[in-house]
Amino acid sequence: MRALQSRARDEFTWFDLAAAAVEAAAVAPEDVREEALYLDVPVIGLIVAIGDQEAFTEQLGSALEAHRAYYSKNEYRTCRSDGFVSIPILAACCMAIDDGMTIDIETDYLPRYLLDHPAWMFELDDTEVFSSGLANGVRVDDGVGPNACGSMQPFHYTATPPIPDTNPADGGLERLSVADAEFRYASGAELCVTADNASDVKPFYEQWSLHIRPGSSGVDDCYVTAYYYEATGTLSRIVRFEPHDRRLFLVEDTVYLYEDNELPHQSVDSAEDIASATFTLDGDLKVVTTTVYDGDLGPDVLEYTNIDTSGLWFDRPAFGDWGRLLPEPEDLPDPEEGVLVRHTGKKPLR
User: Fold this and answer.
1) Residue 264, pLDDT score
2) Which SS3 state, helix, strand or coil, does residue 141 take?
3) N or C: which terminus of the chain carries fewer CB neighbours within 10 A?
4) Alpha carbons 328 and 332: distance in angstroms, whole number
5) Is there a contact between 178 and 140 (Cβ–Cβ < 8 Å)?
6) Which of 126-130, 231-235, 291-295 has the lowest mean pLDDT?
7) Bigger pLDDT: 80 or 348?
8) β-bridge mates for residue 303, sequence order
């Protein structure tokens, strides 16, 4: 920092201060030495090279490679949002551009739009900013990303889920920071992800919630349950995934139907019909439909075989890419494409 301040004042001593910073990084405490050598020292070298185009381009390549190496070392770092774009390297490139130099390396670590249009934030109004490409995609650092419909909405993280069939706004659970949530997800610990509904119903209810629970053998061995809510807070759907061969397999999809979805039903006990589809790895499907108000009748059961289950496999998503675990009903296999092997109609329970 002293070296940068000295450079900004056009003091010749800033070279000595930069050299001292590099020497200090080499003997930094072990817990910060790697970060200093991979992230700080290359940026110092980059700033020193400003004014020499060839040296700057060479140093920029080295700095970007060091940044990539640091954030690719383990799964936790690959999930950290501060590794998606290198702000220090971006700042050094902006300094070089101000000095009349060009940036000849294309990489996702350096958003080209920001380099080519450094005054963009002063030229756009709020509406333009959120409709431009700068606001698209996942913004993990702000805890913001696209919902299942593609619009931007905040993600909230807790260590444990709220009670699924009650008002999600009354969960009373302490929220985690994005950094803590990233760490829990990378280490395979229990995590709950929720997204606020963008409706104007007050209070805002969740549109969906993901409950990620650890399995018995590693980070990729996890169980996931997805809860879908109506705008009024009604729990309308539950999808369950189980781990198999380091991937997730959709084993159950349950839909709850209500007489009036506009009413703030707080429990699934208010559902009139419940339809549950259970899938197996070998292509079997059982669909159980229960009409709650026909309390004296048993469920209607359809059993199929030869179901194409290829679309039921999901990879464990990168942190923030939660939409991958929110399949729409039309994305699931069509039972009619399988073979109906048994149909048990509604029968009296007594």
Assistant:
1) 64
2) helix
3) C
4) 7
5) yes
6) 126-130
7) 80
8) 286, 342
Amino acid at 118: P
Q: Are residues 188 and 222 in the same domain?
A: yes
> How distant, in Å, are the alpha carbons of 13, 38, 217, 242 from that of 58?
24, 16, 43, 48
The predicted structure's pLDDT at residue 134: 32
Q: Quick one: 79 and 211 in the same domain?
A: no
215 vs 37: which has the higher pLDDT: 37
Closest to 224 measured CA to CA, from 179, 187, 196, 193 = 193
| Distance linking the first and last C-alpha atoms of the chain | 80
131 lies in some domain: no
**What phi and psi values does residue 214 have, to the nearest 5 degrees?**
-70, 150
Q: How far apart are CA 146 and CA 154, in angstroms?
A: 8
Return d(Cα 315, Cα 180) in angstroms, integer.
22
The residue type found at 272 is: E
Residue 135 lies in a domain: no
Do 147 and 177 fall into the same domain? yes
Q: Which domain holds residue 31?
A: 2-123
Amino acid at 142: D
Percent of all residues in the chain with a pLDDT value above 90, rounded to a whole number: 17
228 in the same domain as 104: no
- The residue count of the chain comes to 350
105 and 216, same structural domain? no
Does residue 11 lie within any of the structural domains?
Answer: yes
Percentage of the residues of the chain whose pLDDT score is greater than 70: 71
Region 326-349: mean pLDDT is 81
- Domain ends where: 123, 156, 187? 123
Contact criterion met (CB below 8 Å) for 18 and 3: yes
Q: Is residue 329 situated within a structural domain?
A: yes
Answer yes or no: do 247 and 336 share one domain: yes
Same domain for 119 and 161, yes or no, is: no
Task: Classify 159 as helix, strand or coil.
Answer: coil
The pLDDT score that the predictor gives to residue 211 is 92
**Cα dist. 183→191, 296, 317, 319, 322 in Å?**
10, 50, 14, 10, 16
Residues 306 and 204 placed together within one structural domain of the fold: yes
Residue 145 or 229, more confident:
229
